[in-house]
Amino acid sequence: MSGHNVWTHKGTFLLAAVGSAVGLGNLWRFPYLTGENGGGAFILVYALTIFAVGIPILIAEIMLGRTSRQSPIMGMRHLTKTHGTSRAWETIGWLGAASAFLILSFYSVIAGWAIHYTWLMLTGSLVGADAQTISTGFDALLAAPGLMTLYHTLFIAASALIVGMGIHKGIESGLRIMMPALFVILLVVLAYGVINGDIGAAASFLFTFNIADLSLEGWLQAMGQSFFTLSLGMGAIMAYGAYMPSNVSLTRTAFAVAIVDTAVAMVAGLAIFALVFGAGLETGQGPGLMFVTLPLAFAEMPFGALVGGVFFILVLGAAISSSISLIEPVAAFLVERFDMTRPQAVTIMVIAAWAMGLLTVVSFNLWAEGTIFHTLFGRTAFDFIELLTNIFMPVGGLLIALFAGWALTQSEVMKELGSSVAWFKLWRFLVRFVAPAAVAFVFLRTLPQVEGYLIPTLGALLIIGAFAASQRWLKKPRQTT
Ligand code: PHE
């Protein structure tokens, strides 16, 4: 093994995993996707996948990291050797690296918007502004590729510095204060929404489950979002699991992460939609949703400039603690595999993701709807990258579930889970059958209708490949039960 360190403090893994999970996915992506997909139906599919699929896979992913104690790709290589399975299971690592790279590319651009709003808040530029002014201001930001690139560069460089210098393990104490503070400010915004917005309309929008409201692509987005928000299926959690002490309860930690993450998303969703309905804004306005509704509350509330400034700083903190978990698995792999130094590995990963991020930048202006790019491909580059991650992450999760469910032995898993046989059996049933069936169901239901021929073909190949391969790859020499 590669001399992997183990975090000495018991709560460190939980903190790091919550840091990774809670981010723009909860505050920005969850509300905007829910709004675009008609509310409750989206939330129903999202919540079902979190609990029936997400939590079991979360446990599986931590488990793979903790037993191998290496970066995802090298860790899978190690596990395939010790379990006599095919090396093809390394796909989990490779697919994860691809997802991490794609996500980081757009994540950094969106986090860049939060830099812009931190600035607007702290300078008091939006004090007293009305909805019209705020949304015009947001459109102006989208129309400025240069400015967006500048923010994107700042954010990704800051993330790279933290991971490159290896201090991400030291930002614990920061997270310990920031995460609760973020939650408290969200509650303040929610309270403001209850008083000045329309919380009743928000609640009925979010919690009226009419499954017929959900479009086919909505199903895919809801499942993708549940993986995205838990940082699942791409190696981030596996990479952190490699540092988790053996005596910490896997199950309890996984539930804690999922519950905190879901709570943050729900509070953010309620607050944002209370404001949306209160001010008569559009629910389905897309990626700008959070950036035009929350500033509206800060524009009017007492000390709003300060509260808003602190809020966006905390958003940036939550985003950075997620983006470093996107860089970590890929960087750790490059270090282990190619003997690079940490800074070299991080530099390569980040420069590539930065360049890819420019595609997201221009998706909102030069190559937006109505341009030749959009006409040719039917969607913007940003939409396309999001679609790919909505497919890649569940496929990665599916493979993780299958490997953990079928390749690991009962005694190994029992040692990791450290709990009752009944829970072990339930968990194994979930990862062996329920999670794969749910992922396959959503793919088969949606992929054939999405995006002409390219995506269905890609998706079908991935699913068939995953199942076929899992049968072959799992064959092991008889003596190694
Ligand atoms: N879970 C993070 C969020 O919700 C995003 C993320 C995805 C981080 C995958 C790491 C890995 O913001």
TrEMBL record:
It is found in: Membrane. PROSITE patterns: NA_NEUROTRAN_SYMP_1 (PS00610), NA_NEUROTRAN_SYMP_3 (PS50267). InterPro entries: Na/ntran_symport (IPR000175), SNS_sf (IPR037272), YocR/YhdH-like (IPR047218). Keywords: Membrane, Symport, Transmembrane, Transmembrane helix, Transport. The chain crosses the membrane at residues 12-30, 42-64, 92-115, 149-167, 179-207, 219-243, 255-281, 301-334, 346-367, 387-408, 429-447, 453-474. GO terms for cellular component: membrane. It holds the Pfam family SNF. Its main location: membrane. The keyword Electron transport does not apply. It is a multi-pass membrane protein. GO terms for molecular function: symporter activity. Belongs to the sodium:neurotransmitter symporter (SNF) (TC 2.A.22) family. This is Transporter. It comes from Halomonas campaniensis.
